[in-house]
Amino acid sequence: MLTVGDKLPAFTVPVQQGTNALPAGETISDTSYEGKWKVLFYWPKDFTFVCPTEIVGYSELKGDFEDRDAVLIGASTDTAHVHLAWRKSDPDLAAADFPWIADNGRVLADALGIVDKNEHVAYRATFIIDPDNVIQHVTINGLNVGRNPAETLRVLDALQTDELCPCNWNKGDDVLQLAAE
Known about the structure:
The chain is α/β, with parallel strands linked by helices. It contains 6 helices and 7 strands; from the N terminus they run E-E-E-H-H-E-H-H-E-H-E-E-H.
């Protein structure tokens, strides 16, 4: 599995966004959103129970991520057509206005090393990737446990300070200062 300090691998995969049109071969790649922070989060499968709670949770914080010059990118191993159908079936998912990677060939999920060997779907993986495409944070949850999008935002805030941030640090809190010798 790729981890902190690793470069995001080169990839080009299908992507689906919105509910206005059928997928028409749109793609996203490692060079999309150059110079921006990226929050890439995978969920196991569309039309499930825990996944929509996470997608909606991230969607509710989309403006906060944008305020930090970060782009949200969702992903699963479903197709773009399945993504579209799921979005159209649920108004909260339809409102989740960020790209959804349709990694049904598991191109990126395999390169990241996040595919469950038994279920053949991606774990609940979250990557915070800096503007140079270097992974700065990784969390992986099992298939049955949802994430906390607010925690992802908190970690992004800490990473962007480029300072020493203590346990439970939040934006606006003091960072650690080393005593002069």
